[in-house]
Automatic annotation (TrEMBL):
Pfam families, sorted: 5-FTHF_cyc-lig (PF01812)
Presence of keyword Cell cycle: no
Protein name as annotated: 5-formyltetrahydrofolate cyclo-ligase
UniProt xrefs under InterPro entries: FTHF_cligase, FTHF_cligase-like_sf, NagB/RpiA_transferase-like
PANTHER family in UniProt: 5-FORMYLTETRAHYDROFOLATE CYCLO-LIGASE, ATPASE INHIBITOR/5-FORMYLTETRAHYDROFOLATE CYCLO-LIGASE
GO terms of biological process kind: folic acid-containing compound biosynthetic process; tetrahydrofolate interconversion
Residues that span the membrane, as ranges: none
Cofactor(s) the protein needs: Mg(2+)
UniProt keyword annotations, A-Z: ATP-binding, Magnesium, Metal-binding, Nucleotide-binding
Entry GO terms, CC: mitochondrion
EC number annotated for this UniProt entry: 6.3.3.2
Higher taxonomy: Eukaryota, Viridiplantae, Streptophyta, Embryophyta, Tracheophyta
Family statement: Belongs to the 5-formyltetrahydrofolate cyclo-ligase family.
Amino acid sequence: MVASLAGCCRCLLPTLLQRFQLRHFPTPLPLQYSYISHQLPYRRRPSIFFAAMSSDQTSNLDDAFKQKRLLRSKVRKSLKSMDPSLRSQEDEAIQNIVMEAPWFKSSRRMCAYISCSALREVDTSKLLAHILQTPSSSGDSSVAKKLYVPRVEDKNSNMRMFLISSMDDLIANSMDILEPAAVDRNGNPREDVMESDEPVDLFILPGLAFDKSGRRLGRGGGYYDTFLRKYQLRAKEKNWTQPLLVALTYSVQIMEEGAISMTDQDVPVDALVSPSGVIPITAAALERFELSPSAVK
């Protein structure tokens, strides 16, 4: 009887295994895919891990944005209460420091913001006029500078930088902020810095607040951070030297190191120029500036 039962099991076993395999396991993959198949259960696990990390990151981002909102409110109040005569003095001092600096004089291609008094930004009118008149005033075309200025494209943090040859190339947008038209007076498209075959040497940047580690607090739109990331990527792809990022700041806008929260989307600056002088931050700034100890503030 035992022999009969064993024989019966031997007959039924292949059928049972076949049915069990068909119902519960997929057909085995060819050998060349076995490693990938084996890794599938493992590859699903990171999504759980990243989901947990994403929750932590979201919390950190919320804290950073809250801190930024509070700091923006504080700095806006300080700027609003700033004495007009002091503001004028600081505007003059900052622009003179930049124009007299060797690192500025040696720069040939620059991107700079057009200051808006309503936003209480450091004035750049004298600086931009100086850049645009450099060839005619010196009479030497070899020192001619190219100036690109920003134009906001939409409400999704997209901005472009166009070449201008005169302040007359600027028109007021819907926010009453001066910016270049997309075409020149002859109807020709303006040169876009992202399409230029030559690298930018220097960016002159605005901001609402800065700390001494180079962190920059903008106004919340993300336009400059988005543009700078794109340009830095282009410079890397072209194997160009990265441009120097220099921000202009009133005294009341400078915070202690680490006072400004930083996210992955924020681009730090290389140096600050305040009424007291230049504050180099990165090694690139120190190298480009070639500052004497007395010039560093």
